[in-house]
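S.,

Sequence below, as promised.
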Amino acid sequence: MIKQYIALALGLFMATLGWASEGGGTKLELTHNWVGYLAIGIFAFSYIFVILEEKIHLRKSKPVLLAAGLIWILIALVYNANGLPHEVEPAIRHNFLEYGELFFFLLVAMTYINAMLERGVFDALRNWLVEKGFSYRALFWLTGILAFFISPIADNLTTALIMCAVVLAVGKGQPGFVSIACINIVVGANAGGAFSPFGDITTLMVWQKGIVQFGDFFALFIPSAVNFLIPAFIMQFALPSGKPDEVEGEQEGLKYGGMVIVGLFLVTIVTAVCFHNFLHIPPVFGMMMGLAYLKFYGYYLRQRSKSWTVASEGPPGSGADPYNFDVFSKIAQAEWDTLFFFYGVIMAVGGLGFIGYLSMASEFVYGELGPTTANVLVGIMSAIVDNIPVMFAVLTMQPDMDLFQWLLVTLTAGVGGSLLSVGSAAGVALMGQARGQYTFFGHLKWTPVIALGYGASIWVHFLVNG
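The prediction came back faster than expected:
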């Protein structure tokens, strides 16, 4: 029994190390070579630094960028030594193209989100919630439900940060409320992101690969809702009674053009979906076209700004320009560390897949265990390692699964990260934002309850979509 568990753990770990290359030609058997072992060691060592990011304050992109370079150097050296100097380049280009599509898609989405943040769209939402004087329990449910429904559009990380700002604003002096509310937000944001291609990196990858069509993701709405509602229902009984005090001080509100940019973002999403569904063009091209919408509106705002400056009375600086907007500054404010992290993961794990570890993992995880067991375990592994390399591995394995099973792995990889605070980008970000109030062990205390929702969501998926 112990040996079976060890084999299972090794198989799952190998599964996280698989992102293959589609380059043809001769491939060397390196899985039992010192090059393969060293490459695995480099990646594992770099990922230790990723996991310890909050402790050592080293940006997660740095170790994986270095690991990616070292792994491909090893591969190139051994192939050159064996008289195969031209076999590595197609593999690298394939992986880099996959990353390029993801990079530009996310860059446009991040630019829109930053533009909405600057225009005060989310500040206005926060202010409305604070001013209404809701009770702790009402705020718990409102922030969780909003996280669930905003994350399919704005992504789970941004949504979690916005809702956490609300909780911190009203929860001063109540660390217990902040902790439970943050857990609820993480679960809600991850669950909401699981039924939309725009809600999580993993769902985006599945959609861009063309494995699951845009409309098919919404079959996960009910299982995702169950994943959120069961833990929320149980956790609400640990909330303090009463309602928070009013927040003092003037709060920033919605700026000119904020809602127009929200509308342009929705039109951009529609454009990307239409490009993919009707023109059979990769959705990233629709997103890039959507960036043009924002650029043209930015030009309009700059013209208004010039007119306002000329017409404004009083000395310069006497009033804030309501039209001041620079779209390139929003691009510059993108999460570059996250984007470079994705590059490092794709290229590093791509090298390991090229070596041959992917086929080994595929034979064990999906061949021996079967798709249902494997897909459930993918979600558990995503809470420990991270759902991005795990989903990369599954996509590259291309196991023989029907739509039901592909939806299952999309669900588990999306919501499995809620089991631990370090299992998703939303959880990691909130530990920094609500430092000392939302912690790893505070989240861990509620892991059995979250696991109950995880299991229930899988059962409901079988019941509704089976």
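The longest helix spans residues 88-118.

Coffee later?
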